From TrEMBL:
Pathway(s) this gene product operates in, as recorded in its UniProt entry: Nitrogen metabolism; urea cycle; L-ornithine and urea from L-arginine: step 1/1
Statement: the UniProt record of this protein carries the keyword Manganese: yes
UniProt source species: Dyella ginsengisoli
The protein's name: Arginase
EC number: 3.5.3.1
CDD domains, A to Z: Arginase (cd09989)
Swiss-Prot/TrEMBL keywords: Arginine metabolism, Hydrolase, Manganese, Metal-binding
């Protein structure tokens, strides 16, 4: 059996965020030895370096969007990089960067799935639904909009990344750990019928049942994409994010989530986003993210 081939793609930008610092995320993950830890798991790992894009001009929103042209440029770069790795038979891991970058990443995965006749399932691990539009968001920060854009609800420049509109449909998403949603955004999510497993659902049913529901119907023809926003985790264990929201999954719940995804054997691509070393303590959040990603690739606490 050949080794599974992993490609790391750094995307060092906070272009869609409300705080500076997520641009340092890729380097923090490298410092936390992501490549070495995955190689120890028997995976073949190549670091492709960083996607290039425009500087963050740090301007106020224009017509409801901050940095729209720059966000589009970064996402085109991400789309091309992720698509190239998928076409070469590699599993791409996007090292973000803020969550607006999932537009390019997931659009590339969706294009790959269409070409291969595969069914796409996206597990969106996040404190936020990221289903905002210019009308629903007070800030105009595009890292709150990627799911909406992927589903065709957003500006032309972002909805058309990858050339297929919409890039995905709402039914491919399973949102897990949600606990902070804007009022107008709630209605948009309800209208789109996105499947949301919020923290109340996890509290009432436990992570095991929640993940069984989120993974229901995944089969041999499913490409599983995990979009892991580090603010999914409770800030007591993961302080290194710009938008902390109390009451997220604890360490064991997060581990179980990752282990159950690994058990499917269907993981095909991954985003790690919103890691902000400027808010971190001694790189502990990056180390935790790497620890959880190891579990995504089969590291278990059990003795096999």
């Amino acid at each position: 059996m050949t080794k599974q081939s992993i490609s790391l793609i750094g995307v060092p930008t906070d272009i869609g965020a409300g705080h500076r610092g997520a641009s340092m995320g890729p380097e923090a993950l490298r410092v936390a030895r992501l490549a070495e830890k995955l190689a120890k798991r028997g995976l073949s790992v190549v670091d492709r370096g960083n996607v290039a894009g425009p500087m963050n001009p740090w301007q106020p929103p224009v017509d409801g969007y901050r940095h729209l042209a720059e966000v589009a440029a970064w996402n085109h770069g991400v789309f091309d990089a992720v698509r190239a790795e998928l076409d070469a038979g590699h599993l791409p891991i996007m090292l973000g960067g803020d969550h607006c970058l999932a537009i390019g990443s997931i659009a590339a995965v969706a294009a790959h799935c269409r070409a291969q006749g595969k069914t796409l399932r996206v597990l969106w691990l996040d404190a936020h639904s990221d289903f905002n539009t210019a009308l629903a968001t007070p800030s105009g920060n595009i890292h709150g909009m990627p799911v909406a854009c992927l589903c065709g609800n957003g500006p032309k420049e972002l909805v058309e990344v990858g050339g297929h509109v919409p890039a995905t449909t709402p039914d491919v998403f399973r949102q897990i750990g949600i606990r902070s949603v804007d009022d107008m955004e709630k209605q948009l999510i309800r209208d789109a019928q996105v499947q949301v497993f919020d923290m109340r659902h996890i509290d009432e049913n436990g992570m095991k049942r929640t993940m069984e529901e989120a993974l229901a119907g995944v089969d041999a023809n499913t490409h599983l994409h995990v979009s892991f926003d580090v603010d999914f985790l409770d800030p007591t264990i993961a302080p290194g994010v710009g938008t902390t929201v109390r009451g997220g999954p604890n360490y064991r719940e997060a581990q179980l989530c990752m282990e159950m995804i690994a058990d499917t054997g269907r993981l095909g691509s991954l985003d790690i986003v919103e890691l902000n070393p400027a808010y971190d303590k001694r790189n502990q959040t990056a180390k935790l993210a790497v620890d959880l990603v190891e579990s995504l690739f089969g590291k278990s606490t059990l003795i096999h």
